[in-house]
Amino acid sequence: MTHTIADLLQPLAQAREVVVFTGAGLSADSGIPTFRDGATGLWANIDPEEVVSIEGFERDPDKVWAWHESMRSLVADVCPNAGHDEIAELESLLPNARVTVVTQNIDGLHQAAGSTRVLEIHGSALRVRCHDHCGFVEAWEAGQTPHRRCPSCGAPARPDVVWFGEALDEEVFSLAAQATLDADVFFTVGTSAIIQPAASLAMAAKEYGALLIEVNPHETPFSEHADYSARIGASEFFPSLREALENFLEKTDGRDGNDHGR
Ligand code: APR
C-alpha cells in the first residue's frame, strides 16, 4: 500500500498513459447531487427505473423528459470545480502522458474545464438523439425545447444518456477499455464503483499493472485494492497533487522523474 502523495509523483512523471475515471462525486462540489449519497442522493427521491430506463420511457415519456430537463437546467447553472480544472491541467503538467478522462457523468463539466480527451461512457444530458439509433444526434442547448421526434426518421427522440439496462456505446467503451489496459496510472474519482461494466475498469487497470489511486471521502469496494486512497474530496485532492507534482517536476527537471541533484 502506498502511503503518501510523494509516492505518486515519480510514477506520474514517468507515466505514458494516465486514465482518470470519474463519477458523480467529482461534480458534487459543483452543486450537482450524487446518486447514492444518503438522503441527498438523486435516487433517494425517485426510482431510477421510472426516469432512466427504456421501460420508464415507453410507459411515461413526459416523466422521463421532465427528469432529464431538470438535470439539463441544473447543469446549465453550475461550473466545473477545482477537481475538474486540475484534472484538465494534468494534460499539460504531465510531460510524457496521454491523459484520458473516462466519465460516468453526463454533465459535460470535464469539457467545460478544458479536458480534451473525454469518453462519456454514460452519454450526456447536453445532447438528444434518435431512440432508434438512426444517427440523429444534436446538442441540447440550455433553455431550448428539444425535438421529441427524430427529425431524420420520425422515431421518438430522447436524451443521449445511457439508461439502466441499455448497452454502452461500443466504440466509446472500447476506447475506454483500451486506455485502461494501457494505463500506467489509473485514478478512480468520486464513484461508488458499483455500476457495471464501468466499475470493472479499475480492477482491469490494476490487473494490467496500473498504479490505482482512489479519491473518495468514503470507502468503496475498490478501496482495499487501491495503491493509494485519498479520503478527501476531489476538489481538495487534485490542487494539492498538482502543487506536489509541480515541485517534483521542477526539482527533477520534469521529464524522467529522476533527481538531478539540484
Ligand atoms: N469528491 C470525491 N468523491 C465524492 C465527493 C467528493 N467531493 N462527494 C461524494 N463523493 C463520493 C461518494 O462517497 C460516492 O462514493 O462519490 C460517490 C458517488 O457515488 P454515486 O452517487 O453512486 O455516483 P456514481 O458512482 O457516479 O454512480 C455511477 O450510477 O445511477 C448510475 O448512471 C448513473 O453514472 C451513474 C452510475
Automatic annotation (TrEMBL):
GO molecular function: histone deacetylase activity, NAD-dependent; hydrolase activity; metal ion binding; NAD+ binding
UniProt gene name: cobB
Deacetylase sirtuin-type domain: residues covered: 1-251
InterPro entries: DHS-like_NAD/FAD-binding_dom (IPR029035), NAD-dep_sirtuin_deacylases (IPR050134), Sirtuin (IPR003000), Sirtuin_cat_small_dom_sf (IPR026591), Ssirtuin_cat_dom (IPR026590)
Location of the active site: 122
Lineage: Bacteria, Pseudomonadati, Pseudomonadota, Betaproteobacteria, Rhodocyclales
Domain of life: Bacteria
Residue positions binding Zn(2+): 130, 134, 150, 153
One Pfam family matching this protein: SIR2
EC number: 2.3.1.286
Keywords from the named record: Hydrolase, Metal-binding, NAD, Transferase, Zinc
Transmembrane regions: none
Family matches, as SUPFAM superfamilies: DHS-like NAD/FAD-binding domain
Protein known as: protein acetyllysine N-acetyltransferase
